[in-house]
Design a protein that fits this description.
By secondary structure, the protein is of the alpha/beta class. It contains 14 helices and 12 strands. Bound molecules: pyridoxal-5'-phosphate. The site of pyridoxal-5'-phosphate (PLP) has 15 residues, from helix 3.
Amino acid sequence: MNHGFYFDNAATTRLHPAALEAMMPYFADAYANPSSIYRPAQQVRRAIDEARKTVAEAIHAKPEEIFFTSGGTEADNWALKGMVKQGGHLITTSIEHHGIFHVAEFLKATQGAEVTYLPVDDTGMVNPAGLEKAIRPDTSLVSIMLANNEVGSIQPIRQLAAIAHAKGVPFHTDAVQAVGHIPVYVDELGVDMLSLSSHKFNGPKGTGALYVKKGTKLTPSLHGGAQERNRRAGTENVAGIIGMARALEISMQEMPKESSRITELRNRLIDEITSTIPHSYLNGPQDNRLPGNVNISFRFIEGEAILIHLDMHGFQASTGSACSSLSLSPSHVLMAMNRGHELTNGAIRFSLGIDNTASHITSLVATLQSSVAKIRSLSPLYDDYLKTQK
Ligand code: PLP
């Protein structure tokens, strides 16, 4: 499949060839069940142990604090459901991924949990003073994402975790969009739990991990065999785990170079769009954002119309999170940032990754200029606007 110009790396990334290569033996000869006791099985067990060490080192955790899961969604579900019990109080934010947001709603509906959604400012940042005020004696958990998947805002997690801990409340962060792209170290952040997902850093899909700090009282997620130290039963996704570890290793090696290269491309894309396309506005913070995230609202038109035009020219992007693009409801993130319906409906997320180059940016900007002009020429909203200008 020819992907043309791929600008949807926040939805998923291309599997790194070295990760694929590392996985291949585990689809073929190395098929033994790592829980068995014969030597071929023990070799597979050792490969999993090595992968656990690699993932732990990347985030400054201990290997025994890493629990492999089927991805970010499972890690998020586990952190919340394993910690917030009947009638408990959860604090989260109004801009979380649905992997948190819908779990919070579920806990409300089925466990009688109370949920406080902290607001964000118009750049998508949480106010630490708001967290301090929201914590109650019965608060069971604070869960605040490290980096937002739609607008790339990076929260002051270290400060937020310290506020929760000062009141004796455990802290979870969804770091799915951050790990592999910016330094994420659990010892520096001081978090108790952290979710990560392999397919966001050029690893395979369907694999992730939950970091659980030693001593954290978290209910096991799946009951059955003794895998993952009795806390997440089920025969391991061996190839996925090996591929994730290899991809993370490469991302960590490349990060110093890649993050500045991608940040430069991101800034160029933001500048060129907002300076050459009238009525286009950046969503999210100017600086405190993920290297690869660009989110722009184009007034008077719908994001979907732009996406279709871009697709016809070989460019892939997204209107928000890949999960919410299946529903037509407006982005809860942009609405929480008070962007209003028009700017929310006209938003596009371009997320950059390892394959994007300067020439991709040049082509994208040129295509956007013509697509936006064409779509606006058919827009009654734009027509009304022009009449008011005469
Ligand atoms: N959390 C965030 C912030 C995400 O962006 C995503 C995926 O888009 C997830 C969680 C879910 O991760 P996964 O696709 O591995 O289930």
